[in-house]
Design brief:
Layout lengths: L7 H25 L4 E6 L4 E4 L1 H7 L3 H4 L4 H6 L7 H8 L3 E6 L5 E10 L5 E10 L1 H36 L5 H14 L5 E4 L6 H10 L8 E5 L5 H9 E2 L12 E2 L1 H4 L4 E5 L6 H13 L1 E3 L6 E3 L3 E6 L3 H6 L5 H7 L2 E4 L10 H16 L7 H9 L5 H15 L12 H12 L22 H20 L2 H8 L3 H10 L6
Parallel strand pairs: 6-13, 6-14, 7-10, 10-13
Antiparallel strand pairs: 1-2, 1-5, 3-4, 4-5, 8-9, 11-12
Helix pairs in contact: 6-7, 6-8, 7-8, 14-16, 18-19, 19-20
Length: about 500
Amino acid sequence: MKNDKITEPDYDAVLELESVRKLNLELDSIINNSYDGIWVMDGNGLTLRVNKTYEKFSGIRIQEVLGRNIHDLVSEGYFSDSAAIHVLKEKRPVTIIHEIKTGKKAMVTASPIFDEHGEIWRIVANVRDITELIGLKEKLEAIEAESRRYQEELEQLKRTRLVSEEMISVSSSMKIVLEAANRVAGVDSTVLVLGESGVGKGVLAKLIHQASKRQTGPMITINCAALPESLLESELFGYEKGTFTGALKEGKQGLIELADKGTLFLDEIAELPLHLQTKLLQVIQDQKFYRLGGRKTIDIDVRIIAATNRDLLQMVREGRFREDLYYRLHVVPITIPPLRERKDDILPLSLYFLQKFNQKYGYAKKIPTEVADFLTSYEWPGNVRELENLIERLVVMSGANTIALMELPKAILKDQLRLKALPDSNAQVHPDHYLISVSKQSTFKAALEELEKQLIMNALHEHGSCRRAALHLGMHHSTLARKCKQYEIILA
């Protein structure tokens, strides 16, 4: 009978095989549970093992590549490149990013394992799916590009907002002015602002500075007509100690020097004396100057904005303004039209100033339609400055919450009210008569109320008290008080 008993050497072999099996299971378990894909090749690039992680993210089945050479797989388009091929050539670890045929992108680090003879025995490639990472990177780059675009748009909107808040305008002519101001704010070109007195040349210069890259630097303003010639030079250029009697012991910085890294606004530049025009030309050309009594040049970085209501070119022809300075200043001319040429802006400006002074003085005054019509029709020789001053005066001095027509200055009433109210434009208003105006759109009831209101306002203004005004109008003073309340007329 055959002996089935296992001999001791056979038993050891079984134990060894069982141990090897367990080790293989352990190795398979470790490799297949790795976060990275793992691809193992022999020294010739033949695929020996691929884990399930790689199969899962790449979309390539293990059976497709097992036992196949990496060179063939690249040739067949499984990958755009192979780190293992580079390892076989260079005999060192290599990291690359390649694209898998399924569209996935992977970062591969392939490392050689050498035998005792220094030859490549195995190549182990760690493969990480970076498709999502690259997608996030591309999204981040797109977001950053969008953010830069939004930032540029925000800066542009900021410049536009600054202009809109400070310089109210709806007219097409002023929109052209503001667009030009926005464009020139982005560069350092010299600007010459032209226009009549009171149109807002100083305001526009301020807005250009605020919207420029110099906005964090100083804006120094000097009115060339406001100082005598003897003081103007020292104020502009400063002086060294001991330059003249009465000078400060330590000397003094000039306004040009104080404007370093900022903007120097020279208002009424036409009034600058000829010898100072020469010195200013050097500042604009060379960005350097001498203080009075100084021997050392002072370097500066300053942007020049000048303004005038004069015809500089005519002054050049007459020899009263340097031609070379004129052309240095005339790099970017911006002309602000007078208010009479942009009547669309009168009402928005009036309402803006009304709100401003109501807030300042704690009132709630209103401008009725008939007053607004007269404001719009007036020529405004003093331009925006004149309009602002008038609105402040009306807010402060008006006796009612609604500003009455007769509270407008005589200049406006004389030029506008008479022409609108009387059929004969040459007729004169009798000194014993009141001049009353009613809107063409008024109903009969509204016209009577407006007539009554204006009569009461005029009587109160002329007679100074409620009792005397009531007596003049032939009504009881309590009736007058009730009507004043009805029409929001404030009794002194």
